[in-house]
Amino acid sequence: MEKLHIKERLHLKESAPGELSIDVANVELMEKASNEGISTIFDREKQQEPHCSYCVDGVSCRICLMGPCRITKKADRGVCGATGDTMVARGLLRNICGGTSSHMDHARHAALVLKGAAEGKVPYAIKDEKKLRTIAKALGIKGKGSKDLAIKVAKKALDDLGRQEPNETMEWLKMHAPEERIETWRKLGVLPVGGDRTITESMHRTTMGSDADPVNLALGGIKSALVDGYGGLHMASDIQDILFGTPTPKMSKASFGVIEEDNVNIAVHGHVPILSEKIVEAAEKLQKEARKEGAKGINVVGICCTGNELLMRQGIPIAGNELNSELAIVSGALEAMAVDIQCIYPSVTKVAEGYHTKVITTSPIAKIPGAEHIEFNETRADEVAEEIVRKAITNFKNRDPDKVQIPNLTTEAMVGFSVESIVDVLAKISPEDPLKPLVDNIANGNIKGAVAIVGCNNPKVKHDFMHVKIAEDLIEKDILVIATGCAAIAHAKEGLMSPEGYKEAGKGLQAVLKALGEAAGVEALPPVLHFGSCVDNSRIAVLLKALSDKLGVPIKDLPVAASAPEATTEKALSIGTWAVSLGVTTHVNPLPRITGSEEVTKLLTEDIENLLGGKFIGGSNPHEVAKTLEKHIAAKRKKLGLAA
Ligand code: BF8
Is 71 left (phi over 0), alpha (psi -120 to 50) or beta? Predict the structure, then answer.
């Protein structure tokens, strides 16, 4: 397969015909879809325009049956008497609950599998004993041997999610949050006792005739977002590392070119590696069966966050992010798309009607009309995975060669940057004090600061454009970029995660990436570090806490920021609120549905900074957003007495 140098990709990108995507492979398949009469998300978004302005501004309400209501010139309150401010705050809190419940359910699944594995009831192993011991110790758990420890860690996690009383707050929060933050949240009265209780309470308070105070509702949003951060993101990452291993740096590939014409191709899409890890194992085991069907073998490729999980731990190549997902089917070369939960457009089965691809759903809470459903049950994990892989193998003969068009593009990406693996690299430079080289380079200005670019694709925004342009501008200014989720996949596709990508950085950052690369045995580290899936935003918080502890400076004063520049899901809002709660100023585009309330908009974009040290910012021009983030970092540096 032809490999294109990053500069050629950038050149192609500038001259790409696509108005809707900067990903040239995506544009190629959009054109194919259009020629073959296949409608995709890019078409459907246009069909929905113009969007209802009341809904966009958040001043509409469909919670009770007296409505739906909206705030207009002639009606400044809904039928129940709710103001626009109440509607906006209530709607946002419900969004945060939606996002938090997704991550919490994900973490619960992982905890149950860990418990089952340790009890010998499910076919999973504890791959990372060191991580198990680290987490057990941090939770104050003692035990006899790894199985006993694992059961106790899993039970502690499940207790955190289900607790009603009497703890002041969640054990996972106490394990990972800085003391300074816990004190701040305690004063605000937002420490969550338990996960399920908090989300039930939040849904309750947003029902008709309950909480009508916008500020109180916003505090409910912070409390729920803390559950997301600790009972969702951290818990899921910790337990998945124990089960599947903590990621280490490795080379892999990104973009549609990872789909291989000679092979049975299986795309795994969704979020939880509990199924997709087993599909990788089953594919390895059943290679021979694929050869009997005339294929060269079996090729598993990832999409979205379960793809990120496999990429980080196994180096399984990634075909694309959210806005690539339907078009992977349009390549005509996918025998199966196996999905679990979250971010799977229900239209994938409609798109698959035009091709031979089998869409296979596996979760009892995420079925899609038109899909084949093979229910995943961890006690039968190996059988289910093998059944899915065999379905793909037998479907190979149904592929129509005339419909196959795989864009001839792949990009090299260095992935797998857990905090543990970064510390290992740093320890090669400074064994006694691994964080010292990082801190020294921040202090001397080689690294001005760091920005986490995270989150989704949204068809309201040119696909990958904001992710890539903001990152390019920041690295040029010596600001390190860390990425997760669909943002990370965008950066991987565009070459910003290739070791040679360091040449796009400013001189100071280049020098650091080269020094670290040499320590890691490569030319340089990439200027955008792949930190994993969306639950792996927890890894960013681990790094921030480590830096904060090392410098003796609260997170809110560090020269850092975050951006979700193509945000889509409720999860993006719960994660963003958690980031702001940590004191990290966070850019979000498009803005959540708050603009109909001056009070809530002012609270979230200005006043909240006095309470938490971070706030939300908007902006849809990537260069302006990058400048704003750069200024923010310069101001933080100045406050710390560091040169701008
Ligand atoms: O959890 S970045 S579109 S795939 S929500 Fe979904 Fe957004 Fe992608 Fe992953 Ni995250």
Answer: beta
Report, as an integer, the average pLDDT of 262-287: 98
Q: 316 CB less than 6 Å from ligand 1?
A: no
- How buried is 273 (Cβ within 10 angstroms: 0-12 exposed, 13-18 middle, 19+ buried)? buried
Helix (H) or strand (E) holding 295: none
Q: Which residues contact 119 (CB under 8 A, 6 or more apart)?
A: 147, 151
Among the listed residues 407, 101, 124, the one whose alpha carbon sits nearest the alpha carbon of residue 254: 407
Q: Answer yes or no: is the C-beta of 362 below 6 A from any ligand 1 atom.
A: no
CA–CA distances in Å: residue 193 to residues 98, 230, 528: 19, 12, 36
Class of residue 262 by CB neighbours under 10 A (exposed 0-12, middle 13-18, buried 19+)? exposed
**Distance of CA 195 to CAs 161, 172, 192, 227, 523, Å?**
4, 11, 7, 6, 44
Beta pairing partners, 229: none
Question: What whole-number percentage of the chain has pLDDT above 70?
Answer: 97
Q: Is the CB of 485 under 6 A from ligand 1?
A: yes
**What would the pLDDT profile of 546-582 be if each residue is shown by its tens digit?**
999 999 999 999 999 999 999 999 999 999 999 999 9
Q: How far apart are CA 541 and CA 580, in angstroms?
A: 12
Q: How many CB atoms lie within 10 A of CB 199?
A: 23
For every residue of 603-624, DSSP letters joined together read IIIIIHHHHHS--EE--S-HHH
What whole-number distance in Å separates Cα of residue 588 and Cα of residue 631? 17
Judged by phi (left if over 0) then psi (alpha if -120 to 50, else beta), residue 343 lies in left
Residue 5, pLDDT above cutoff 50: no
Q: Are strands 60-61 and 69-70 parallel, antiparallel or unpaired?
A: antiparallel
CA nearest 253: which of 482, 421, 407?
407
Q: Is 276 in the pocket of ligand 1 (CB under 6 A)?
A: no
Backbone angles phi, psi at 72, to 5 degrees: -130, -175
Closest CA to 492 of 515, 474, 471, 514: 471
Amino acid at 46: K
Higher pLDDT, 55 or 1: 55
Helices (H), 444-569: 465-476, 485-493, 507-520, 537-551
534 lines ligand 1 (CB under 6 A): yes
Q: Which residue's alpha carbon is at the smallest distance from atom 3 of ligand 1? A: 456
Pocket test for ligand 1, best of 344, 571, 573 (most atoms within 8 A of CB): 571
What's the burial of 204, exposed, middle or buried (CB within 10 Å: 0-12/13-18/19+)? exposed
Distance 534 CA to ligand 1 centre (A): 6
Q: Tell me how crowded residue 506 is: count the other CB atoms within 10 A of its CB.
A: 17
CA atoms within 13 A on the CB side of 143: 21
- The structure's pTM equals 0.96
Ligand 1 centroid from CA 326, angstroms: 15
Cα–Cα distance between 644 and 631 in angstroms, integer?
Answer: 9
- Residue 575's nearest CA partner among 527, 541, 602, 601 is 541
Q: Mean pLDDT lowest for which of 14-18, 159-163, 376-380?
A: 14-18
- The encoded tokens of residue 201 equal 């309470």
Distance (Å, rounded) from C-alpha 289 to C-alpha 297?
8
| Integer Cα distance of 212 and 80 in angstroms | 11
Chain length of the chain: 644
Among 312, 324, 343, which residue has the most ligand 1 atoms within 8 Å of its CB, making it the best to mutate? 343
